[in-house]
Every structure is written in C-alpha cells, then in structure tokens.
Write a structure and sequence with these properties.
The complex is a heterotrimer of chains A (644), B (192) and C (95). With 644 residues, chain A is mainly alpha-helical. Chain A contains 19 helices and two strands. Among the domains of chain A are: 192 residues, Up-down Bundle (Cytochrome C Oxidase, Chain A); 77 residues, no CATH class; 48 residues. In chain C, helix 1 runs antiparallel to helix 2. The chains are: A mainly alpha (644), B mainly alpha (192), C mainly alpha (95).
C-alpha cells in the first residue's frame, strides 16, 4: 500500500465553480447527478401538472392535442431518463465507494464523463421546446404565437415508428429526442462500466461479495442491465434516425421494413430499463428497513439472489409490452409465462422485507415511513403488473389508464418513495446535519395521500375505458369525478415536494449537527465522519463480516441477542479521529478538464447532427469530432494523479 | 487505478473495464447482425447485397484484418520485452493494415453505389451498409487509437503497461473488432 | 499484477496461430464456392467459431486470464445469442 505513504503534491481546489466542473470526486459527481436530476424532477412534475389540469374536466381546451402529445412524451422521458436514472446514479456514485471501503471509483474521470454526457443529453432533449420544428400548430392556454409547448418530442417516450417516422412526424422534434437519448445513453453505458469495475475490484480487504451491502448487489445488477441493454436501444435509435434522415425503411412496411422490429429492439432495452429504475430503490429500502427495525435484513442471501434473478429474468419478458402488436399466440404465451415467473423473486423480496420488520423494534422516522410506503405501494403496482401477464386481460388494459396506474405505482410509489427514503436516510452523512423530522413526516403523509389520490383512481378509470395519451375524454361516461380527484392529488404531491425542498435547503445550513452514526446503522459509510473527508477513509478498513460496522459496535450471542459493546462509543470516536487525521494523507485523483471538454464536444456534435443539413451543423460535427479526439488524447496523456 | 494497487479480483482494473465494455459490444453488433438476418431475403426490390458481394475481394480484406491481429499481438510481445522500437513498428503495421481494410471497404461500398445499391435501396441493403458501416467505424476508431499509441510512445519513458491508455487495452479492442469481422464475413458474405 | 502470469504464447506461436487462421479462412472460402448443400451453413459456422475462439483465447489472452473475465465476456455473448435468437424466432412464428 505504498500510495498511502506518498504525500499529496497538487492542492485540489475545494471551492468554486470550476472545481465542480473539473471534479472527479465521486461524492461531488453524485451531487451533480442528484441536483440535476432533482431539477428535472420539478420540470417533469410541472409537465405532469399541466397534463392533470387538462384532464381535470372532460373536453377541456386548456392544452391543445399537439401540446398534450409533447407534454406526456416529455414527462415520461424526463422522469425515466433524466430523473430516476440520474438520482439512482447519484446514490450509487455517492455510496458505493463508502459502502465498499474504497477511496473513489475505478475510473474517476470516466465517472465525470458519464455525468457530462447525461447533462448534454438532457440539454439536447429540452432544447427541443425552443429549437425544434414541429408540423402541428399550438395554442391552448398560451396563444399560438408564443406557445412552444407542442414543439418538444411528441411520439410517446417509446417513440414508435411509423408514427415517429419521417412521413408522420416531419420536422425535427423526434430527432431531438433520438439524439438526446442516445447521448444520455452513452453516459449511462460509460457509468456502468465504471461502477461494475468498482464493485468487483475496489472492495476493502476482507469484503467478499457476500459481505457487501444489499445496495451494492442491487447496483451490480443494475449496471449489468445497463451494460447489456443500452447498446440495443442505441441501435434502435440509429436505425430510426436513418429511417427519418437517410431514406432507409427499416421500420416502414411500405419499404419492406417492419415496425415490430423497432418494438422488439426498444423493449429489449425498455424492459431491463424498468428494473434499472426499481432495483436501486429496492437496494435503498433493504438498507433502511433493517436499521429502523433494529434487526438484520431477513434472508440476505435470498434477497441478493432474488435481485439477480429479477435482473436475469428481466431480459426474458420484453415482448409483454407487445401483446397487442400482432406477435402471434406462441410468442404471446411464452412471454406471458415468463412475465408470471418474474413475480416470484419479486415476491421473495417483499416477504423478506416484511419479515425483517416482523418482531423488530420499529422506529417510524421519515426514511422508515418512505421505505414501508415503498413496500406497500410497490406491491400494489406489482400486483397490477402481474394482471398484465395474462394476455387477454392485457388486451383490455393496454393503452388505458390501468397501465398508467400500474407503472406510477411501481415508479413513483416504488422508485421515488425509495429515493426519498434514501435522501432522508443519508442526509446526515452527506451534510453532517439532521433534517427536520416533523416536516419530513408531513412530506411523507401529504405525498402518500396525494399519490394514492392521483393514481389509485386510474385503475378504475382505465378499466372503464379511459384511453392513454389522449388529450381529453368525452363527458357523460362517468370519468369526470375520478379525474378531478386525480388532479387534486397531483397538486397535493406538488405541495409535498415543496415541503421536501424547504426541509432540504433549510436543514443543510441550519439543521442540528449530526453525529457520524445518528441512526445506529450497520454499514461502513456510517463509520466515517459526516460529511466524509475527500478521501473517504483515512485508513482502509479490513472487513470481517456482513454489516461489519454493526459488529464493531454490538456483540451477538448464540440466540442472536444483541448487546452493545462497552467500548462502542470510544471505538466510534477513535474511528472519527483516524479518518479525519490519518497518519499519511491519501493521495487522490486530480481534477481534470477533459471529461467536461469531451462532454462539451459531444454536445456540439449532437447539435451538429441535428442541423446536419446546414453549414453550421456540419461545422459543429467537425468541431465535435476534433474536440472529442483532442479531449481523449489529452486525457490519455494526463496522469490520473499528479504525482503518479 | 494503476497496477500497484491490489484489486479484489486480482484482475487489472482497466482490463476488467475493457472486457466489460467489449461484452456490451456483443449486444450492439448482435442487434445489427439480427437486423441483417431478418431483412436479407425479405421482400426484395432493387439490387440487394447477395447480387453484388465480391467474395475474392472481401477474402483478401479478411486476410488483411486477420494479419493485423497478428501484428498487434507481436507489438504486445515486443513491449513485454521492452523493445520500444519494435513495438512502435508493429503498431504502425497494424494501423496500416487496418487502414487498408477500411480503404477496401470504402472501395467496395462505392462500387455498390455505382451499381445502384445504396443505403436506402431496400432493407437488405440498408442493414448491410449499417452493419458493415458501424464495423468500419469501429476499425477507424481503432486505427486512431493505434496512431495515438504511436504518438504517445515518443514521450519520456515510452510505452508502458502502467499508463491508462496502454497497448494491451488497445490490443483487446483491436482483436475484438477483428472477431466481429470474422462473424460478419461468414454470416453476411459466405452463408448463402 | 497479472502481467506476472506465466503463460504467454511466444511470437512463434502467434505466427502459427495466424497460419491456422489463414487456413481456416481458405477453407471457408472454398466451402462458399463448393456449396455442398445442406451441410454448408453449419460447416461455415463451425469454422467461424473456431477462428473466433482462436483469436479470443490466444490473441486476446482469455485462455490465460482469470475465469472471471471469461465468464464476463461469455455473459455478453450468451445474452446476445439468446435474445436475438428469440427475436428472430418470433418473426418466424407468425410475426
């Protein structure tokens, strides 16, 4: 471990705008992902509120059909690609090195690059509101001359051809989506290579895979899913771009192509994608529930293997999104069966979470409330999902609000609740302060009630025939009341988010100072100061067991009864001191300008592609390529650490 | 992380990262190959690839690319013996062979265009061009990587395996591009 | 750490393998021209897999690497093969 002995030579700037732009510190990159993702959450939420305002009454003219198509497309795309994925990335980036006992991730600069590509993708996507040309007129509550609400991508978040092809979507709105998502996707791929390598290679001595926290296991599965699914959607996107721009007919039946091929390629990515969205939250909840039940996770191995099984089986169910696409009875039967089987490992996890809480000494803090909320809401969403696995039932449900109910229960009641649980749970570690518990509980209850008001009725509305992706519904067929309830619920959700934001902003500066282990938790990240020093661990720990930190504080007798060791507090104080003032200050990767420069080049390249028919566009393409090449070459020449 | 740090698996971190990336490329090229297999015989209007593929010419191209894998591996062997000049020479040879391959592809494609088979003629031609085009793009990037290594070899200390972008990693990428071609050559060109 | 591993083919062995690759390619091309019926395609695939394996095992050194890397690469190949086989199968079992 000679690197421990080498003193730090270059002073890393701790503050200032440029220190953030050039950062390669995983904790800062995590914050970049987190704050950016949260900003997109607000934007996507505003899009949702506009949708709900339009649907509050039948035959409403608040939003025009064209605007509506853009809004639901952008809402879905934003929440999936620009909110849940980056927030999950934020957690994985922040926590994995801390949980594994590492100083940073495997490829710090590549890690930064992943963020800049994500941001670039988001910028391209959202610039469509301003820059893209659409065929359709706008003009709802905003006058036609200024409304750009209908100018963003409008083909649904899955962007099916032929609707999204050149004939039915002239103009450039679709291209902005395709290029933006492709760029963000490359960022995810790059990130997955980095995090997988981190998990496999940078664990502290003694931490075998079966001694890793469950969150780390779920992160591993997520990153395998990303690794294998992003290339597929990248191909689908390229092929659709070629169809739109270069006259190919991959997905045009009239040209000999097949639109169902797109659906296969999209859902080969799209289904693993939904497990990418939920597994991090499952990992978070698997960390939170044991701590606030004062019991270890019930069936660690089962939860781990169930997670692996979900990832594995998740690759085998994609055509259940295509039951209504004419794929034929053999295919339908096969995928209906495989979809049913995926309920099994999911159920295993739910039972294990419940068993973790059973007989435990429960503390109903805000993270615990969100975690329990997750288990309940996700189970509801999972149950409606399983009803989709029955093909004839799915034919009834497809394209109705029943599906909208299902995926919001798993994505909001599931992923977002899990994310909020994590945000509150790790807030003290991140900031060194406690959030306001009472306000957080108000957030939870308001959000819980609002959420169920918004999405619960959609099960009924869907089965009564209310169609998805349609800007209005007829009066007089019984849909009015629950749509109004749903809209009110949406505004309750929005209010609860404001409570969260107020809590976060206020408590960061003025919350009560937090000890390093405020929750009496189990995993390694709680053994270092809050907020962690830049190098995380002053001394890399040696791990002897699962939940090693817990075993440093508590003894367990043969019957599993737990007693706090008399030297536990002194031990924690000693740890704090050791990590804050290490004998030899560890040296760290130096900040680098090349990941953001590469990101900027990629952004230029992306806009160049969108304007490839103009000289400016061609110039941007050339500049982008040169910039990328120059950035990567400089990156290769730059030593990772100044004194390497 | 450089080689002096111990890793949990015992595998060099950068090598592990590269193999993970190459593993994902199987999904990328697999989709393109599937695409070709689906469309190659379907609903054909206009000239399609089977009519124009030049087996003798492409056999020579394939030979060129295979030989470039040999020169790559010889470059690696030279560097393990710390023979910087030989390593540089073999790297240049590899780049030259790679560039020859790409040149051959460009020549082949322009011939196809002259014969009336373009990217948009029919789905078979589209999927042919997209598959071989993306492969050619990968080869081109590989050539740039090789030339970058040659450029980097002139710095003080020359090429080592300690650096982030090192010969072993580029070699893995290069051989991968070769094995994709091994598959394409058989599936597209040789299987009727 | 693993550059200290022993087994590395010698340059001679590398050239030998290259020779085998050339022979296999020549066989493949011959099969194309001979076109001996139903067995042609399986035979071509076998030859292709042989070449593939030789390059991966010896040139990419996977034969001498940790089993973990072998499994990692195999995973990508396996997932791709299975998924795309199923996709093609759905098209042939009535769309």
């Amino acid at each position: 471990m000679t690197f421990l002995a080498t003193p730090l030579r270059r002073r890393i700037p701790a503050k200032g705008f440029w220190s953030w732009v050039t950062t390669v510190d995983h904790k800062r990159i995590a914050k970049l992902y987190g704050y950016t993702g949260f900003v997109f959450f607000i934007v996507g939420g505003l899009e949702a509120l506009l949708i709900r305002l339009q649907l509050a009454r039948p035959e409403n003219a608040f939003i025009t059909p064209a605007e509506y198509n853009s809004l639901f497309t952008m809402h879905g795309t934003t929440m999936i690609f620009l909110v849940v994925m980056p927030l999950a990335a934020a957690f994985m980036n922040y926590l994995l090195p801390l949980m594994l006992g590492a100083r940073d991730v495997a490829f710090p600069r590549l890690n930064a690059l992943g963020y800049w590509f994500f941001l670039g993708g988001g910028i391209v996507l959202y610039s469509s509101y301003i820059l893209a040309t659409a065929g359709a007129p706008a003009g709802g509550f905003l006058p036609e001359t200024i409304s750009r609400l209908g100018s963003a991508a409008n083909g649904g978040w899955f962007m099916y051809p032929p609707n999204s092809g050149a004939q039915f979507s002239p103009g450039s709105v679709i291209d902005f989506w395709l290029v933006g998502i492709a760029l963000a996707g490359v960022g995810s791929l790059v990130s997955s290579v980095n995090l997988l390598t981190t998990i496999f290679n940078l664990r502290a001595p003694g931490m075998s895979l079966m001694k890793m926290p469950v969150f780390a296991w779920m992160a591993m599965v997520v990153n395998f899913l990303l690794l294998f699914s992003i290339p597929i959607i990248t191909v689908a996107i390229f092929m659709l771009i070629f169809d739109r721009q270069f006259g190919t007919a991959f997905f045009e039946a009239s040209g000999g192509g097949d639109p169902v091929l797109y659906q296969h390629l999209f859902w080969l990515f799209g289904h693993p994608e939904v497990y990418i969205l939920i597994l991090p939250a499952m990992g978070i909840v698997s960390e939170v529930l044991p701590v606030f039940s004062r019991k270890p996770l019930f069936g660690y191995a089962a939860v781990v293997f169930a997670g692996i099984a979900i990832g594995f089986l998740g690759f085998g169910v994609w055509a259940h999104h295509m039951f209504a696409s004419g794929i034929g009875p053999i295919t339908q039967a096969a995928f209906g069966l495989s979809t049913m089987t995926i309920a099994i490992p999911t159920g295993v996890k739910v039972f294990n979470w419940i068993a973790t809480m059973w007989g435990g000494k429960l503390r109903f803090t805000a993270p615990m409330l969100f975690a329990i909320g997750f288990v309940a809401m996700f189970t509801i969403g999972g149950l409606s999902g399983v009803t989709h696995s029955i093909v004839p039932a799915d034919w009834q449900q497809t394209d109705t609000y029943y599906v909208v109910a299902h995926f919001h229960y798993v994505l909001f009641g599931g992923s977002m609740f899990g994310i909020f649980a994590g945000l509150y749970y790790w807030f003290p570690k991140l900031t060194g302060r406690m959030y306001r518990e009472r306000l957080a509980k108000y957030h939870f209850w308001l959000m819980f009630i609002g959420f169920n008001m918004t999405f619960g009725p959609m099960h009924y509305l869907g089965l009564m025939g209310m169609a998805r992706r349609t800007y209005t519904y007829p009066a007089g067929i019984g849909l009015e009341f629950w749509n109004m309830i749903s809209t009110i619920g949406a505004f309750l959700i929005a209010s609860s988010v404001l409570l969260f934001m107020a809590n976060w902003i206020n408590s960061r500066r003025r919350g009560a100072p937090a000890p390093i282990d405020p929750w009496d938790a189990r995993t390694l990240e709680w053994s270092i100061p809050s907020p962690p020093p830049e190098y995380n661990f002053g001394e890399v720990p040696t791990v002897r067991s699962l939940d090693d930190f817990w075993h440093q504080k508590y003894d367990e007798d043969d019957l599993g009864r737990v007693t706090r060791r008399p030297d536990a507090d002194a031990h924690i104080a000693e740890l704090t001191e050791k990590h804050l003032h290490p004998e030899h200050r560890p040296h760290l990767p130096s900040p680098s300008a090349f990941p953001p420069l590469a990101g900027l080049s990629a952004l230029g390249f992306a806009f160049g592609l969108l304007y490839h028919a103009t000289p400016v566009g061609l110039g941007l393409i050339a500049l982008g390529v040169v910039g990328l090449f120059a950035s990567f070459l400089s990156w290769a020449r730059e030593p990772l650490e100044e004194n390497a | 992380m450089t080689a002096h740090t111990e890793t949990s698996t015992g595998i060099d971190t950068r090598k592990l990262g590269m193999w993970a990336f190459l593993s994902s490329e199987a999904l990328f090229f697999g989709a393109l190959i599937t695409n070709y297999l689906l469309f190659k015989g379907r609903d054909l209007q206009g000239i399609h690839p089977r009519e124009l593929l030049n087996i003798p010419f492409t056999s020579v191209s394939s030979f060129v690319l295979l030989m470039s894998s040999l020169t790559m591996v010889l470059a690696h062997a030279a560097l393990t013996r710390d023979n910087q000049r030989a390593a540089r020479g073999w790297l240049l040879a590899t780049a030259a062979l790679g560039a020859t391959f790409v040149g051959g592809q460009v020549y082949e494609f322009s011939n196809f265009y002259k014969e009336g088979m373009t990217l948009s003629t029919n789905p078979a031609s589209s999927s042919f061009f997209v598959l071989t085009g993306f492969h050619g793009a990968h080869v081109t990037i590989g050539v740039l990587l090789l030339l970058s290594l040659v450029g980097l070899s002139f710095r003080r200390g020359g090429l080592t395996f300690e650096h982030g972008l090192n010969l072993e990693l580029v070699g893995l990428y290069w051989h991968f591009v070769d094995i994709v071609w091994i598959v394409i050559f058989t599936v597209v060109y040789l299987i009727r | 750490m693993d550059s200290a591993k022993p087994a590395h083919p010698s340059p001679r062995q590398y050239v030998t393998i290259a020779g085998i690759l050339v022979v296999l390619t020549a066989l493949e091309v011959s099969l194309f021209y001979l076109n001996i019926g139903g067995i042609n395609t399986p035979a071509l695939i076998v030859l292709m897999l042989l070449k593939f394996t030789l390059v991966v095992a010896f040139y990419m050194h996977l034969r001498y690497e940790s089993g973990f890397l072998r499994r990692l690469f195999a995973a990508g190949l396996a997932v791709a093969s299975v998924l795309y086989f199923i996709v093609l199968a759905t098209f042939y079992s009535r769309g």
